[in-house]
Amino acid sequence: MCDLLDAPPSAEKKLSRMKKLRRTLSESFGRLALKKDDSGFDEICVTKMSTRNCQGMDSVIKPLDTIPEDKKVRVQRTQSTFDPFEKPNNQVKRVHSENNACINFKTSSTGKESPKIRRHSSPSSPTSPKFGKADSYEKLEKLGEGSYATVYKGKSKVNGKLVALKVIRLQEEEGTPFTAIREASLLKGLKHANIVLLHDIIHTKETLTLVFEFVHTDLCQYMDKYPGGLHPDNVKLFLFQLLRGLSYIHQRFILHRDLKPQNLLISDTGELKLADFGLARAKSIPSHTYSNEVVTLWYRPPDVLLGSTEYSTCLDMWGVGCIFVEMIQGVAAFPGMKDIQDQLERIFLVLGTPNEESWPGVHSLPHFKPDRFTQYSAKNLRQAWNKLSYVNHAEDLASKLLQCFPKNRLSAQAALSHEYFSDLPPRLWELTDMSSIFSVPNVRLQAEAGESLKVFGKNNIYGKGLSNNKH
């Protein structure tokens, strides 16, 4: 019995073991692992197996997950896998490596493989541009310049798409501006049809470049082109998209803190996108105190104007109300021309001067001094902005957004369910985050003031301090 165990295997057993080895290696070569790279494109990885000329049982088979990254070769999903142990028939099998070199595996009658590499030019070759590289984008024209950043219209050399390049100048003494770090870190995690998309981040010694999707104009420029107020249907679609984007970030405990028409981009299809997250903050629970030097004056809520540093998503909702009124009426709701005192007077003139009854806790705010303000009684909003009365439920929605007492303001999610939107297609409330409202049939912008729909202008508000606006 022992002699039989120690006897060398027969030729038939050797052949059987070789066939089993070939089958195992063939299956290993065909194992594909789908992964997602940083650029958002799907890639397929096929792992090279190391063998010692496949001679008998000396072959070494490494598990897929132990292969070093530099030993992996990426192939296109459409390319078939190959079996180096199939019967020799002089056929050529091809795979595409990471640099898109065409590798020919040609079998001969001897069973040996002789890989030949024929390199050719392609967007993914080593000498061609890739995502994350400074030379991957071509600057076409300057869109705006501010104190620490310049925005250019650009074109990607990788896929040919238009982009907006926000080039932030780095100071050796000061380092990267905190607003740029905050904006990049927040936008990397936000994926929504109504939030501007951050494509790429490029960091060099001199600059930090944020690469955004290119959007043609912003709401401020759009309204400037059509003074006197926008088409009521367009106001409704713009507001719905604004609330949709805000609801998304508020559910993730993020405050924008700088809502204004300049920071709402409008695409050539009418899609509205929240932009400029330089002042945005991820809000913790329980709430911390924040700076009250946020939000452009015209869109700053009274609680912040009075020195409050404890606020939540209601901060953004005041800005929504101001923008809503401005789109309908054609002029800013509260265009303060002097200072914070003047801004508050304009607000109290319409909404009434607050007291402890209408606004519990107002007397404890740092800048509230009753004798400093004229005593006004609250008015119907249509008395201040007559066009609100032309649109069903518009005045009611505006009044629930423009509440001096922060806790009385409607949330973004609740506002989306307001009667003002009741005539929109129900499918709009069923869309996934990345789906545009214009994917729903019969949802489209109307021509403004008898003109054919045009979206125009240069966008210069991809970052804080890029536009020299008057407010």
What is the typical, i.e. mean, pLDDT?
Answer: 74
Strand order of the largest sheet: 7-8-9-11-10
Helix/strand-derived class? alpha+beta
Proportion of strand residues: 15-25%
Q: State the separation between the terminal residues, measured CA to CA.
A: 98 Å
User: Which second-level CATH architecture of the largest domain applies?
Assistant: Orthogonal Bundle
Structurally, the number of domains stands at: 3
- Supply the CATH superfamily name of the largest domain: Transferase(Phosphotransferase) domain 1
Q: What is the count of β-strands?
A: 16
SSE order: HHEEEEEEEEEHEEEHHEEEEHHHHHH
Radius of gyration: 31 Å
Question: Uncertain runs with pLDDT below 50, 5 residues or more?
Answer: 1-8, 28-124, 284-294, 456-461, 463-471
Number of helical elements: 11
Q: Portion of residues in helices?
A: 10-25%
CA-based shape:
globular
Biggest sheet features: 5 strands, antiparallel
Oligomer: single chain
CATH topology of the largest domain: Transferase(Phosphotransferase), domain 1
Output the CATH class name of the largest domain: Mainly Alpha
